[in-house]
Specification:
The chain has helices at 6-15, 28-38, 44-48, 103-114, 133-147, 149-152, 166-181, 203-207, 216-227, 265-277, 294-297, 302-319, and strands at residues 53-61, 68-76, 83-89, 117-122, 154-164, 188-192, 253-259, 282-287. By secondary structure, it is α/β, with parallel strands linked by helices. A hairpin with a 6-residue loop joins strand 1 (53-61) and strand 2 (68-76). The chain starts with 5 loop residues before the first helix and ends with a helix. 50% of the residues are buried.
């Protein structure tokens, strides 16, 4: 297997066995309970950070009329002008995570230095809600945010859809779905270690088995939770697994990054390549020695800081067009 960056390896070792614990079908409920305890939702008051940010919970009707999607809208306080919008989908393997806990990092890393607004989406999780529930929640929220751009104080012409891991896969699926339905057109899609392919057939998926912090066993459990008996089906929708898409033309400019020592490496590289083959725009970074979630595990590692700087530079370029 590719060697881990020394600083990343030290962080993985410091995290102990939990860092490489596999998600299994039998352990899914306990995994979800543990994640909810370890990743509590900050309150709106905590997110406002003493008045540095304006933060509001909003509700968008689902497309099927069955309830509402919760959106958490945040922006630097005291800015009267329209801001570009990062529409963000959290990670967690489609089975964990929430819209609130990702916001402190997003606000600190991008909202303040780039002067942008963030809308984070609380999509429904598997296995309680299977495909297409999550991506439809994301689509309903996106349409609502663009329709209400004026009251949100955002410029819908400067819109980036983004996410990490499961959220990166959902962002890619949302870009495809919005293109095909004639929905909101984004300027860019920010795909960080995206979860794109349910089949688990890539070389890196096999190479990193038992080694990556999210390996093929965990990945299969998550996809099974999302898809049920549709997992691995020959005719699976690309809105479920974007690696299944046969037409990647007319998509927003893509930023794709992944680690060299990561289960998702080959599917991420293949996705960027497929966008290029379709005549589209993609910027690809494969971070040497990085595992899944390397920048969360080792935020002060040089490779994590390089990755964050590259993402920020890309966001700035796309939003200034």
């Amino acid at each position: 297997m590719p060697p881990l960056d020394p600083q990343v390896r030290a962080a993985v070792e410091a995290a102990g066995g939990r860092a490489r614990e596999a998600l299994t079908p039998e352990g899914l409920a306990a995994w979800q309970e543990r994640d909810a305890s370890a990743r509590p939702r900050p309150t709106l008051d905590q997110l406002r950070d003493g008045g540095r940010f304006e933060v509001t919970e909003l509700h968008a009707p689902r497309g099927d009329g069955d309830g509402e999607v919760t959106l958490v809208s945040a922006r630097p306080a005291g800015v009267g002008e329209e801001l570009p919008l990062l529409y963000y989908l959290h990670g967690g393997g489609m089975v964990t995570g929430n819209a609130w806990s990702v916001l402190p990092r997003l606000l600190r890393s991008w909202a303040l230095p780039l002067g942008l607004a963030v809308v984070s989406v609380e999509y429904r999780l598997a296995p309680r809600t299977r495909f297409p529930g999550a991506v439809e929640d994301c689509y309903a929220g996106l349409g609502w945010a663009v329709e209400h751009a004026e009251e949100l104080g955002v410029d819908a012409r400067r819109l980036v859809i983004g996410g990490k891991s499961a959220g990166g896969g959902l962002a890619a699926a949302l870009a495809l779905l919005s293109r095909d339905r004639g929905g909101p057109a984004a300027s860019g899609q920010l795909l960080l270690s995206p979860m794109l392919d349910d089949r688990g057939e890539t070389y890196s998926s096999h190479q990193m088995a038992g080694h990556d912090t999210w390996d093929r066993d965990s990945n299969a459990t998550a996809w099974q939770a999302l898809l049920g008996d549709r997992h691995g089906a020959a005719d699976l929708s690309p809105y479920a697994a974007p690696a299944r898409a046969t037409d990647l033309s007319r998509l927003p400019a893509a930023y794709v990054d992944v680690g060299s020592a990561e289960t998702f490496r080959d599917e991420a590289v293949a996705y960027a390549d497929a966008i290029w083959r379709a005549g589209g725009e993609a910027e690809l970074h494969v971070w040497s020695g990085a595992c899944h979630g390397f920048d969360t595990l080792a935020p002060h590692a040089a490779v994590s800081q390089d990755a964050q700087e590259a993402r920020t530079r890309w966001l700035r370029r796309v939003l200034q067009r």
